[in-house]
Structures
1.
Amino acid sequence: MEAQASAPPAPTQERPIGYGEYRKEIERARRSLRALISSNNCAPMMLRLAFHDAGTYDAITKTGGPNGSIRNPEELNHSSNMGLDKAVKLCEEVKKKHPNITYADLYQLAGVVAVEVTGGPTIDFIPGRKDSLCSPEEGRLPDANKGADHLRYTFSRMGLEDKDIVALSGAHTLGGAHKHVSGFDGQWTKEPLKFDNSYFKELLKPNKSPRPSITPKKDSEQRPASSASGDDLNGKPLFIFFTDHALIKDPKFLEHVRLYAQNEEIFFRDYAVAHKKLSELGFVPPTLASRVITSVKNSSTMAKTAAGVVVLATTAAAITYFYRQSYRKLE
C-alpha cells in the first residue's frame, strides 16, 4: 500500500542539500578518507576501486562509468573485481559519516585521495556524479594477459588516448598482485605505497618480460601474467603484466614511458589530467552557472525580484566564462 502524500519521509531518506553544502560535505569526506586510507595502508586498493568503477564506460552506448555500480554484488563478483569487496566495505565507514554523498563521488574521491596521500599529484575533483545499480556486462576492463591492441581498444572505447593509457598505467607504482586475489604474489616497484615514476624506470630495465602464471584458480579464469625480474624490499620478485610489457614493445607507448621515466613532473602533470578524465567518463560536471541558478531557485528572496534576475543572469554568465577558461587550462 502506498504511503499518503502527507506522510513524513522515512528515517533513512536523505534530505536534498544545496550544491554549496554538498561541496562542504565532500571536503569533510575527503578528510575522513585521508584518515581511513592512512590508517589501513589501503591506497592501492582504493585506487583500484576507483579505476574499476570508472573503467567500464562505453562512449558509444553511454553506459558504465563512474556511477558507483561496482557496489552491486553482480558487478563486484566479476573476476576482475576480486578483492574489491574489502574496499567497498571500508568506504561504507565513510558513507555512514557522510550519508548525503553519492557512492559514485565517494569511490572516485577515494581514488583521488589515495594518490595524494602516497605522494602523487593533486587531482582536480568536481562532485556531482549520480548513483546507479545498473551494472555493465563483464569483460569491459583491461585484461592483464593481453597486449597493445587490446589496451588501445579498451581505452578508446572509453574515449581515452595513448598518452592517457601510459599515464594511467603509471598507477601501478602502487600496490601489486596477491595470491588470494590473482594467484600471484608480487609488485611492480620496490616501494608499493609511494606514488612516483619508479614504475616507468622499472619497465626500462633490461630483461623485463612477462610470463603467464601457473594453475588458474578456475577453469574459465586465467591468472595475471608475471615476471621474476628484480626484487622488492622484502625479497619478493617484482613482476609485470603483459599489458605493462606492451608499453615498452609498442613504439608509440614507449615514447611516453621514456619521457615519464626521465621526468617525474611531466608524469605527474599528465597523470592528473588522465585520472580526471577517467573519473569523469560519462559525467557532465555541473557548471558554476547552473549551481548559481539552483542556489537562487532555492532562495525565496532574490528570485522574486527583477533586480535579482538581472544579477543572476550576469553572475551566471561571468562565472561560466571563467569556469570554461580554467577548465581549458587542464586540457
2.
Amino acid sequence: MILLRVNHITKEQMRTSGKRLAGLVRPASRSGSTFMVHLEARTEYPHVTAIAPLNEPAGFYGQDVLSVTRQFWYDSYGNIRYPFGNDQQGNLLEVIHDAFQPLGYWNDFANYPQFEGVAMDTHIYEVFSNQEVARNWDQHIESICNRGRTIESWTKSAGSLWTVVGEWSLAAYDCAPYLNGRGVGSRYDGTYPGSSKLGDCAAFTGDGSHFFREYKDFLRRFWEAQVTSFEKGQGWIYWTWKTEKAHEWSYSAGLEHGWIPKDVNDRIYPGICG
C-alpha cells in the first residue's frame, strides 16, 4: 500500500512532520495531492494493491476539515479507481481514513453499489490522552475488546465499508521518546503540559530485555485482545516493525522477546474478549 503521510489537513503536520505547528495551515487547493494520487494509480507496481491518499486528516478540528476531507476522498476516488481517463476501472483499492470520527459517522459514504473498491482505515491507540494512560491493564483490555465489538457491529451494518485497523501498537503508556513530539514529555510521568504524574516511565519503555515478567505477560494479553478484536473487521496493520528504543512499539522486538507469537493465530488467552 502507498500512503500519503503529511498534508495540510493531517495530524502529522503538527506532530511528526518535522515542523511543529499550533494549528492547521489551510491549503489553497487540493490539486497537488490529487494529481500525485493520479500518477501513483497510473504507475504499475505489481506489489501495490492499495493507495491511501491521505493519512490521519485532523477531523477533530471540526466541520471545515471534515468537509474538505470528504471532498478529497471523492476527488481521489476517481484518480485511484479510474486512472486511465475513461470508464475503465483500475485494480487498486482506495483506503480512506476515518478522520478520528466514530465509524458510524461514515455510514453510507462511498459505499457499494455507487462506489467500488473503497475501504475504511481506523487507527486505535490507548496512549494519547490523560484518561487512557491512567487505565490499568485490565481496563486497557476491556477498552480494546469493546472497540472490537464496535468494529464488528459497523462492518455488518448496511452502509458500511470494509474496515481495517491500519495502525495500532502494544503501548499502554506514552513513554516512548518523542512520541508526543520532539522535546515534549509524557503524560504518564507528568512531563507533558497539563498532565499530572501517574508513575515512572523507565519500566515500560526501552529495551524489552529489561521488561519485568508481569509487564511482558500483559503485552501478550494486550496483543491477543487487539488481534482478536481487530479481526472482527477485515484485518489489521501493526505500527511499527522496528524502533530504535521503544520495544513496546516494535513488532520485531516483540517476536524476539516472546510477547508477540511467531504464528499470529497462536493464542494463550483464546477467550480474552469473552
